Amino acid sequence: MRIIVTVLFALFLVSCSGGEDKTVATGVTEKQQLFKWKLVTTWPKNYPGLGTGPENFAKKVNAMSDGRLQIKVFGAGQMVPAFEVFDAVSQGTAEMGHGASYYWTGKAKAAAFFTSIPFGLNAQEMNGWLHYGGGLELWRELYADFNLVPFAAGNTGVQMAGWFNREINSMDDIKGLKMRIPGMGGDVITRAGGVSVTIAGGELYTAMQTGVIDALEWVSPYNDIALGFHQVAKYYYYPGWHEPGPTLELIVNKDALATLPKDLQAIVETAARAVNQDMLDEYTARNNEALVQLVDVHGVQLKKLPDEVIRELRKISGEMLEELSEDSELSRRIAESAKAFQKQATAYHSISEEAYYQARKEK
Ligand code: CA
Asked: Do 175 and 44 share a domain, yes or no?
């Protein structure tokens, strides 16, 4: 009898709280309900930068929610292989995933836009487009068909063009080049006469060492040094024309997200935003240090892609973007939105960021 009275009293208190702390089926209130979620990633467990992003995200969510939303992070292959993350979260096998949208162009071609497009937006501009220029809404529209809600959750800044075992002096050197380069950058290389392949990060060293590939792009000095590519490749080329501001994604199963109380949903959103900026800050600091190590300690040959090659790759990229925008009505809207944003950003950044970089260098 006392138990019944206690329960009734508890329900009375809950009903007095204006519905903010709703009673769920089990009798515990929303604020008492514990969520234990799984987050699968496309990165090796605890991999610097890319892999620590989701770990930081989980820690922040745990701290901000006072342990009400506990997230266990799985590295690639621990629960599902790297390239099954999208399906696993879409189907609800895991509630969350962390990776890059351009891995899923086989599901939706326009997914490429939300990581990075060749000669497209840099990190600062991507963040502006996604959060204040309509990009995120378009991304969510694209993923709605897959029962997923995407968030920007990390950015590496401008990447490197990659590691090569042959010198690139003209477009002829791209012909027959077998290169690990995913997304649209890969399509551009293929159209230029090369062969692009997508291989997960953990397998790249061996692929390069055994000659399965002639070249690879991964990220930038901070990450590349960790995987030891300087031991298996001769030349390190810049700039990363194909990935000027790669955004990483947090994907959340839409049904699972809807089961969270509003405050936990806000925590997920806020933690993703925090991690998105934090990763860029970390890369900004660590790339500098790692480049010094690569060049001064390991004697890496740093090379700039010839202007002629850059010009040709940019031309091909433009053609491919046009074709991609014709893929569907949504693709066209995404392409137009990104293009319009880039036009404005380029105009302003040419007299701000770019002019400032130049001014800083001038003697
Ligand atoms: Ca990359």
From this structure: no
